[in-house]
Amino acid sequence: MILPALNFPKKPADMNRRDFLKSGGAVATLALAPGVTLMAFGGQASAAADPGKRWGLLIDVNKCPSDCSACVSACKVENGWGNDKHAADHPEAAPQWIRKVSLTDKSTGREFALPVMCQHCENPPCVDVCPTNASFKRPDGIVLVDKHRCIGCRYCMMACPYKARSFVHEDVTDQKTHAPRGKGTVESCTLCVHRVDAGGAPACVEACNTTGNAAMLFGDLNDPDSEIAQALKAYPSVAIRDDLGLNPGVRYSNL
What we know:
Blueprint: H1 17-23, H2 43-47, E1 55-60, H3 70-79, H4 85-89, E2 98-104, E3 111-117, H5 125-129, E4 135-137, E5 143-145, H6 155-159, E6 166-167, E7 186-187, H7 193-197, H8 203-211, E8 216-220, H9 227-234, E9 250-253
Parallel strand pairs: 1-9
Antiparallel strand pairs: 1-8, 2-3, 4-5, 6-7
């Protein structure tokens, strides 16, 4: 069955701050390379999760230059997406595990940009609509896709208010063993779960720190002594489409 294309009322680049926060529009067969296994996103991924933690991101929009795409480039390299031949002819269908969205405050003329990825919701609608339980949330709050179970129905793509998921249209190459991809499946930001389970931070966060911008803060939202929890307590922040009650694990300051 071929599902109709999704039609969003506005492109991210055309949105202002209020539109973006209200609408969220900023929002098969498996073909795997030798040595690449999909089991990384199955039971093993949940077994490594600590149910006492809730991983999340705090992004300071004031520290995120419009002309910087270090986080996007780092994600592409780390997880092996962005080189699909299909994307060259169909940019609207290109993988976007993370993307930069440009916004303008109509009342002041202020222009700014921010990275948008899977928001790793506490109550993820993608999980609710998945007919095979391929979309799932780990005990530590990271939302993933089990490629063995994904049948490519794309219900999760329609349910996601952040337009955070992509569909793999063709055979893929240059795969990473820690980030398996398969034709006919859905994919999205994993918060670099392989890094997190090894005690590290997502590639986007490290890249942002390397530039000196330090706009992205990663940590355990459940730990009141963590840097991210302290920052959220000290400074105001917002979640995109907070009105939906999804309680995203990604929050933004100065938006």
